[in-house]
Amino acid sequence: MSRIPPVIALIGATAVGKTNLAIALARAIGGEIIGCDSRQVYRSLDIGTGKPSAAELDGVTHHMLDVAGPNEHYTAQQYIDTVRPLLASLQTQQIPAIITVGTGMYYEALIYGLLTAPAVDDETSVTARAHVAADSSAVYALIQQHDPASAARIASNDPARITRWLEVFLATGQPMEAFFSAPRTPLLPVTEFRLERPRPELYARINQRVTLMAQSGLLEEVKHAIEIGYDFERVKVVGYTELLPVLAGELPLEKGVEKIQLHSRRYAKRQCTWFRNRLGGEVLDLASENTAQLIAAILAHLKKTP
Fold it and tell me: pLDDT above 70 covers what percent of the chain?
C-alpha cells in the first residue's frame, strides 16, 4: 500500500465505465471514491445522472454525491472548498482517493486552481447578449471557427456560456482558450488514467443506458424533481430538459428518449475532446480488457509511479 499514490484520477466520458472500474479499484487498494461530476452533486437527480446505487457501491465510500439542492448554483469553487480538505483527510488516514472525472472544469480547478477570463465592461456585455439573442447559432459558429477547444466544452444550446465567450472575444480580441492554455503546474500530486472506448461502442453504451434509465423511471424522477423545485427550462440538464415536452403531452416518451440519447452522445464527444486536448495520463482501452485485467494494469502502472 505504501507505493499506491494518494490521489488517482479516472477520467472519461459519460457511460465509458468510470464508476464500475472505480469501485473495483477502490476494493483492490482500500480506497474511497470522490465524484467529479457537475450533475451528480444534485440531490434527487439519480437515474438521469447515472449515480451508483448503494447496491452497486456495496460498502465502498463515494463522496460528492447529493451535496446540492434545487435552485442552488453549485460552482467549481464550492467543489474545491469541499474536496481539498477531504483529500487532506484521506491522505492523513493513508486512504487512497480515486477521483472519477466527468466534468473537466471541476477537475482542472481542483488540480490546477481556478482560471478566470478578463472582466468586461457593461457596454460589451450588453452587445454580446444582443448578438446571442439575435442569432446564437451564428455566434456558436464563430466559437467553432476561432476557438475549437472552447467549442468542445460549450454546448450549442447554452446561451450563458456562449455569451460569456463573446464578451471576452469582443473585449480582448482573443478567444477564451487563450486565457486557459498557458502551461500549468499541478497544485496536487495525482496519477491520471484516461478511459477510452471506440466511438461506436461508446455511443451504443450511451443509447443502451438511456433506454434503461427510461425503463427505470426517469420520467417520474423528472416530474418529482420539478415538484421539489428544479427548473429544467432555466437550467438545462441533459436527461431532464428533453422530457419536459413529454410531461406536457407534446411529445411521445420514445421521442424524448431519442433526444436524450442524441444530446448525451454530443456531450460525450465534447468530453472526449476536452480530455484529449487538455489532460494527460495513461490511456486505458476499456474495450480490450476485462475489469480484472484493467485493475492489474492500473496496479502495475501505480507501482512504477515515483
Answer: 96
What pTM did the predictor assign? 0.83
Please state, in angstroms and as integers, the Cα–Cα distance from residue 249 to each residue in 221, 224, 255, following that order: 16, 16, 12
Burial class from Cβ neighbours inside 10 Å (0-12, 13-18, 19+) for residue 297 reads: middle
Single-letter residue type at 152: A
Pairing of strands 7-11, 282-285: unpaired
Residue-wise pLDDT tens digits, 212-247: 999 999 999 999 999 999 999 988 899 999 999 999
Q: 178 falls in which pLDDT band (50, 70, 90)?
A: confident
Question: Which residues fall within 8 angstroms of residue 266, CB to CB, at 6 or more apart?
Answer: 155
* In the predicted structure, residue 20 carries a pLDDT above the cut 90: yes
Q: What does the alpha-carbon distance between residue 229 and residue 72 come to, in Å, rounded to a whole number?
A: 10
Three-class SS state of 296? helix
Decide: 277 and 149 in contact? Cβ < 8 Å: yes
pLDDT surpasses 90 at 153: no
- DSSP secondary structure string for all residues of 251-282: S-HHHHHHHHHHHHHHHHHHHHHHHHHH---E
| Residue 111, C-alpha cell as written in the block | 488540480
User: Which domains, and CATH codes, for the chain?
Assistant: 7-114+182-304 (3.40.50.300), 122-179 (1.10.20.140)
* Burial class of residue 227 (count of CB atoms within 10 Å of its CB; 0-12, 13-18, 19+): exposed
Q: Is 159 exposed, middle or buried (0-12, 13-18, 19+ CB in 10 A)?
A: middle
Per the listing, cell 425503463 goes with 215
Sheet strands side by side (includes 97-101): 62-63, 32-36, 97-101, 7-11, 191-196, 282-285
Of 51, 121, 52, 41, residue with least CA distance to 81: 41
